[in-house]
Amino acid sequence: MGVDKALLDVGQGALALHAVRLVAEVCETAALVGDPEKYGSLGFPVIPDNVPGFGPLGGIETALSRSAAEWNLIVACDMPLISVEIFERLFSSAPGFDCAVPRHANGLVEPLCAVYARGCHAAVAEALAAGVRRVTDGLRSLAVRYVQTGGEASFANLNTPEDVRKYRNG
Questions:
Q1: What distance in Å separates the CA atoms of residue 51 and residue 128, rounded to the nearest whole number?
Q2: Does the pTM of the predicted model rise above 0.70?
Q3: Separation between Cα atoms, residue 30 and residue 21, nearest integer Å
Q4: 77: domain CATH number?
Q5: pLDDT at residue 58, rounded to an integer
Q6: Which residues pair with 27 in a beta bridge?
Q7: Considering its fold, how many domains does the chain have in total?
Q8: Which of 139, 121, 120, 117 is nearest to 72 (CA)?
């Protein structure tokens, strides 16, 4: 991407700020995981990574290790079309499982927009300690509820300058 996409403004303020504001609409507390020096100015608590450089699974581990909530909404910052309605559907689908993860008709899953029980922390930490880095691999020992959410468009990621250009041009 060439820039920190969490701080990239695509029309709603920094992507990270947009994501955390949406999370705050459905959760009692909302925080960012990352470098407090980079993201502290966004106005939400910033939790430093327990295991910097371990990618999204490390971020999930960090969030779960610091949470007091039974259920935790984990959302990547690069999905500007995600909605509160999706979050609510995930929360309502989670009881009885370790986590609720969106799955599209084509089988693609979205573990970076999912609801995790705080109790998942041990399994995620064990996966990291075993060298696992892919989020889906880190969830293998968990009881996952896959939730149909109605379409992939809401989960569109902005990973490249071309993705950003397409998003901005509608």
A1: 9
A2: yes
A3: 8
A4: 3.90.550.10
A5: 96
A6: none
A7: 1
A8: 117
Whole-number pLDDT of residue 165: 87
- And the tokens for 149? 């959410």
pLDDT beneath 50, residues of the chain: none
Domain that holds residue 9: 5-168
Contact 115, 64 (CB under 8 A): no
Per-residue confidence (pLDDT) for residue 65, from 0 to 100: 97
Nearest C-alpha neighbor of 143 from the set 119, 126, 127: 119
Identify the three-state secondary structure at position 49: coil
Question: Rounded to whole angstroms, what are the CA distances from 52 to 17, 35, 138?
Answer: 21, 9, 17
Listing DSSP states for 52-111 in one string gives TTSHHHHHHHHHHHH--SSEEEEE-TT-TT--HHHHHHHHHH-TTSSEEEEB-TTS-B-T
